[in-house]
Every structure is written in C-alpha cells, then in structure tokens.
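FW: tagging you since you asked about this chain on Friday. Here's the raw sequence from the shared folder, copied in full. Didn't touch anything.
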Amino acid sequence: MLSAGAKITKFSIFGAYVSAEGGSYTDYSEMWRHANGMLFPVLISYVYLLFYKSNSEKNFYRIFSFYAGLVPAASILAWIVTPVSFMSGNAPPGDDVSDFLFIFTKYGHPLFVGFAAVVFIGISVMLMVKKRVIHNYVEVVKGLR
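HL: got it, structure written out here
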C-alpha cells in the first residue's frame, strides 16, 4: 500500500484488516496486496519453524510451535478451494483470494494459484515433519492422558 503511494487510514492486527486511501496500483502490486494477508504469516511461520529446537522438553513450546505451523498452513486452504469455485462462477465476492484471481486470470489459469497453494502447504508439512514439530506435539498429547 505504502509503496503504491496510498495513505493508511485504519489498521488492526487483531481484526486482521488495513484500509487505505489513494495510491496508484498496477496489476502486480494489487495482486501482492491481496496475497500478503496469507503470505506474511506463512513466511513468518517458516522462519519460526526453521529455528525450532526439536530437543526442547517444554510442553508449552511444543504446543505453541505446532499451532504456529498449523494455523498459517490452514489459512492456505482457501487458496486451493477458491480457484475451483472461481472457475465455476461461485467465488465469494470481496474475498482476498477472489480479488487476486480476478486480476491473475488476465495472465494465467486459476489452477496455477491452487497448485502454488498446495506447494506452500507441502513446505509447511515438510518443515513440521523434518523439525519433529508434529512428533513432539503428539508426545505432549500422549503425556496428558
């Protein structure tokens, strides 16, 4: 938004929204604006998972780390489902994914977006398995019985 010359008028981390006035958006910058709501938390979770200490015995750390990887990965699911509904004309209006697809389809097929989302989920799962986040979470759950 700021890079497009817009002035931010409202911002809320907890409400997960930002509003702005003005700005000169290209198709490329507009697509980034719609994708950032998903990409930023996912990339932060990747960085967090890369530094995850699998030998830690702290239950809170293990549980928090599991959800720090799971929640952003789950938010990617909309980027798999919406391209399919977009192709059938049933995409939700005003949704970031739908707005992204309205622009993207000028340049490519909507299923490319769904495929990229599958790749992002695959990276999340791979990191969580390789860093033993899922294994450690299961150990904590078993220990609570």
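FW: The first helix runs from residue 27 to 50.
HL: agreed, and The radius of gyration is 18 Å.
FW: great, closing this out.
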